[in-house]
Amino acid sequence: MKMDIYEPFQQVGMWGDSFKVDGGLNSIASPMLMVDTTVENKSEYIPQESREVSGADQETTNKDVIKMRRRLAQNREAARKSRLRKKAYVKQLESSRTKLLQLELEIGKARKQSLYMGTALDGSYIGSTSETINPGIVAFEIEYGQWVEEQQRRNEELRHAFQTQAPDVQLNVVIQSVLNHYSNLFRMKADAAKADVLYLLSGVWKASVERIFLWIGGSRPSQLLNIIVPQLEPLTDQQIVGIEKLCLSSQQAEDALSQGLEKLQQSLVHDMAVDPSGVGNFGLQMALAMDKFEALEGFVNQADHLRQETLLHMSRILSTHQAARGLLALGEYFHRLRTLCSLWSSRPCELA
Amino acid sequence: MHYQVESAAAAWSYLMRVRSMEEDQMERVLRLASQSAVVIFSVSSCCMCHAMKRLFCGMGVNPTVHELDQDPKGKDMERALMRLLGNGINSTAAVVPVVFIGGKLVGSMDRVLAFHISGTLVPLLKQAGALWL
User: Fold this and answer.
1) Which of A17, A138, B19, B37 could bond to B128 as cystine, CB 3.0-4.6 Å?
2) A146-164 b/e with 16+ CB inside 10 Å = b?
3) What's the complex ipTM?
4) Cβ-nearest to A259 among B54, B59, B118
5) Which range is least confidently modeled, A38-42, A153-157, A257-261, B21-25?
6) Which residues in chain B are contacts of A252 at CB distance < 8 A?
């Protein structure tokens, strides 16, 4: 019976040693130090057997028995340890799996948002630079994504009507719907400018390739004409004169707005000037600068107004057929820009 | 009771004075507007006004500019212009720039741009003698 009492303690010592190797399972070490009562019960049977052996062999047999019992106990302990390790590993796997699912969901969300902006990898407005979410801008981002999709559909409709040589009446209906769709965009942009003019001016909502050509929150009207006009031959003399005048007036208007904006930028710089004596009124400076942002809204509105008027007047100069061709070219141009953008974003990154 | 009548009369006479001041300024605005072929009412710090000036200069027109912030009656003139434009009372947007061509009101930047793009601005300028050929 003495042996029964001592053995568990000896075995605990051995368990402690064997578990120090496994650093990752430190949390398991403590339960291991608890004595396994089942070991005690099992070991009780063996001494009973050995006692029946004759006295002469008893010492050697006892030693063997001790060794055997020790081995069995070690085996049991090893098996137990292995079971617990397996349990821990499975738990780790499961938590990693849920984390992976979460990350995949997040990436999916981010991708959807950046899709509205026409690029694969650009950071979305939400969570990139702003600390507070602007509902007006969130609404704009979603609406703009939908606008782009709708733009594609209307362009396809226009192409179909054009290629099937639909009668002028029908063609005019489609032309009008395309022009209306552009009007919708300008209305959306006006709301977005009220919500956050700096966001709109940054062009972050546009595909990155489009941003190269950014002028006051959109395309230059003269640029729009450059895309449309080459598609329009043949033109009557009257039309040629009309288009030349339109190109000139849109250029003059662009220059005027650009200069006005430049003056605004200069006055902002002036407002933000740091007083070397450090006496300046910081709060006042900030307030003055914020007023200037309201003036920015005016410029964005005038620029969009200019874009709209240019498109409308252009369609008035042209015949139905020419207008259809021009608008088709315009829609196709922007579609290609966006495609170019996707290709650019998905190009393999070079390893440094 | 006596005081109420007095204050009512005082308020009424104040209103009449303000009205006549405005009328004066309205007259003045219209008079100034007809003194040159192209007249721009502006505020010197306003950048949209600067854009308007650049637009006309870019076309080879030499507009007469009245800076309201440099005129003692500037505020009243601004109110007169607001009434001419038919702006709502709630509009916090700047009144200026306001353009007159040949003494007749054209309007703010968006009207001027619309006229220019549609090709009606240049004939108007020629008619007023602001542009030759």
Assistant:
1) B37
2) ebbeebeebbeebeebbee
3) 0.86
4) B54
5) A38-42
6) 55, 58-59, 116
